[in-house]
Specification:
The complex is a heterodimer of chains A (about 270) and B (about 290).
Chain A (H helix, E strand, L loop, with lengths): L2 H24 L20 H8 L1 H33 L4 H15 L2 H15 L5 H24 L4 H9 L4 H29 L3 H6 L7 H11 L4 H36 L1
Chain B lengths: L5 H5 L5 H32 L6 H8 L1 H34 L2 H15 L3 H12 L4 H9 L12 H12 L1 H12 L3 H9 L4 H29 L3 H6 L7 H11 L3 H21 L6 H4 L5
Classes of the chains: A mainly alpha (about 270), B mainly alpha (about 290).
Chain lengths: ~270, ~290
């Protein structure tokens, strides 16, 4: 290795240490016997996991978040796939409008969105409801899902649908039997991303939650702000495992999608 | 693709009605939870208690709020510059790696990208606390005798925000670099350019849309960032998102909070429109342009 690439490698690995170190430091604290978050951890205990799984408030918040995230994933995958399909099959000026509106919730800060929804949901009674969260989370997750689905749709040859339609299939039938099976891996991974975005969403939850209907991120925010107990590292372990599972899941789905695309080209 | 012809007329083209039906649920969602609530909030900022610009005047004229705005811009810019310094080499190495190394590097960037913001913020709170690892190490090496105050400072906010937002810059730069044909580098080498000159004069200009796009994404996100400054920042040196939250929830001064949202939204909209050419979302995820 020449000195220049050695230097580049050294710099990059230093950056990777910076990226990974905080996560690697917090995880072992979940099994420490100490009440304080010290490093290295002392002894071994699973009591912080018990404190999480045994506490009704943590469990309620977790299930509330799971329910919201699952519904957000489904809503985003369905609504996003419909709109993206119209986009890639020539939506014209409506497609331009679609793209402009899609990027809006990414550019406008979540704090602005959260404050706006705080006022609007209070007057409509949607504050703290599952429906309110699902709609807000679907909005912010939509661009990620649309992008994932669009990547697959743009590689589907429209001639396949044309062939089906000229044989008498309606557009819906052609989509359902030809296109949808081909893009399915990406639709699922788009839904997966929406799930994790919703499950981790802290800002909107900060404004929309009342006393009782807190999501998991909202409960975590309160704990970190007030006393930062070792329950947080225990949850961090679980959430990191979830992130790894989602990443592996998305990777497998991508491989499946590549294989399907290759298969269609061969036949 | 086939030439326009017989099949295309009834096959590929959708009627406007079909397009509207397919995009309808999305438009309904955007109107109901984005356009209307935001428009409603902004109208409060100029219509309450009567049609007025006094709330915006307060933002500009009161030095306390001016300082918050200036500090926010400063921190966001610093986070953007630091992220760029850390991201560019990582993206370059990612684009030049193959096989297991490429997979490893990508995983290292994607894992934090998809892991909880609260977990990462809590990790920094633990690292930076009085008896935390960083203070222990500093005392151990003898740089300081007493634990230093690291948490609840602007430094803590900048470091943690750079950590949280950096992956958003790596991906677009990586996407731009990967789209540069390898022939270009070879051509530059044949013409006698060394690796540095070839990177400076060929690679960097071609990757500029990705670099600029990533920088603007991180800068804009940092401008309105709430969680990390709220948990790690100093209560005396707040950023605009915390100010908005205070005015909204504690002072219940909704018109003034709305005016602050108006200022923030105006800034991000102007920047987005000014850079709309490079700021394309499909590139933000590291996809092919």
């Amino acid at each position: 290795m020449n000195p220049r690439s050695l230097l580049l490698n050294a710099y990059v690995y230093a950056v990777l240490v910076f990226i990974l170190l905080p996560i690697l430091v917090i995880l072992p604290m979940s099994i420490s016997e100490s009440n304080y978050l010290t490093f290295p951890p002392e002894g071994f205990t699973l009591s912080w996991f018990q404190a999480y799984f045994g506490d009704e408030r943590w469990m309620e918040a977790t299930w509330f978040s799971v329910r919201i995230a699952v519904l957000t994933a489904i809503a985003t995958a369905v609504i996003g796939t419909m709109a993206t399909y119209a986009l890639v099959r020539g939506a014209g000026s409506m497609g331009t409008l679609f793209q402009a509106l899609l990027i809006g919730p990414i550019v406008v800060p979540h704090i602005a969105l959260a404050v706006a929804l705080y006022l609007f949901f209070q007057s409509t009674g949607l504050s703290g409801t599952t429906l309110g969260y699902v709609m807000a989370h679907s909005l912010i997750a939509m661009p990620f899902t649309v992008f994932t689905v669009a990547a697959a749709l743009s590689s589907v040859d429209p001639a396949l649908e044309d062939a089906a339609m000229s044989c008498g299939a309606s557009r819906f039938t052609a989509f359902r039997l030809i296109t949808l099976p081909m893009i399915m891996p990406n639709v699922v991974s788009g839904g997966l991303f929406a799930f994790i975005i919703s499950f981790d969403e802290p800002v909107i939850a900060f404004f929309l939650a009342g006393i009782r209907d807190k999501t998991l991120p909202r409960m975590m925010f309160d704990d970190i702000e007030q006393n930062l107990t070792p329950v947080i590292p225990a949850i961090a372990v679980l959430l990191t495992l979830l992130s790894i599972a989602v990443l592996i899941g998305a990777g497998l789905l991508k491989r499946m999608a590549d294989r399907r695309a290759a298969g269609v080209q061969e036949s | 693709m086939s030439a326009p012809g017989f099949f295309e007329a009834d096959g590929r083209t959708m009627s406007r009605g079909t397009v509207l039906m397919l995009m309808g649920p999305f438009f309904a969602l955007v109107i109901f939870v984005f356009l209307y609530p935001l428009g409603n909030l902004l109208s409060i900022s100029v219509l309450e208690p009567q049609p007025t610009l006094e709330h915006y005047q307060r933002v500009v004229e009161n030095p306390v709020y001016g300082r918050v705005l200036f500090r926010t811009l400063q921190i966001a810019l610093l986070v953007g510059v630091l992220s760029l310094a850390l991201s560019l080499p990582v993206a370059v190495l990612m684009a030049n790696s193959r096989g297991p190394k490429a997979v490893f590097l990508t995983a290292c960037i994607l894992l934090p990208f998809w892991s909880s913001v609260l977990v990462r913020t809590a990790a920094w709170a633990i690292l930076l606390q009085r008896n935390g690892i960083i203070n222990q190490s500093l005392q151990f090496v003898g740089i300081t005798d007493e634990p230093m105050t690291l948490l609840y400072t602007q430094g803590a906010v900048v470091i943690a925000m750079t950590h949280v937002l950096m992956p958003f810059m790596v991906l677009p730069i990586y996407g731009a670099l990967r789209n540069i044909p390898a022939d270009y580098g070879r051509a530059a080498a044949i013409c006698g350019a060394g690796p540095l000159r070839s990177f400076w004069e060929v690679t960097l200009p071609l990757a500029m849309p990705g670099i600029l796009g990533g920088f603007i994404l991180v800068f804009l996100t940092a401008l309105g960032y709430f969680i990390t400054p709220a948990l790690l920042g100093s209560p005396q040196e707040i950023m605009i998102a915390t100010l908005i939250s205070q005015q909204m929830r504690e002072n219940l001064d909704w018109p003034f909070a709305a005016a602050l949202v108006g200022v923030l939204t105006l800034i991000v909209t102007v920047i987005t429109l000014a850079f709309s050419k490079v700021f394309r979302f499909d590139r933000m995820m590291g996809g092919r342009a």
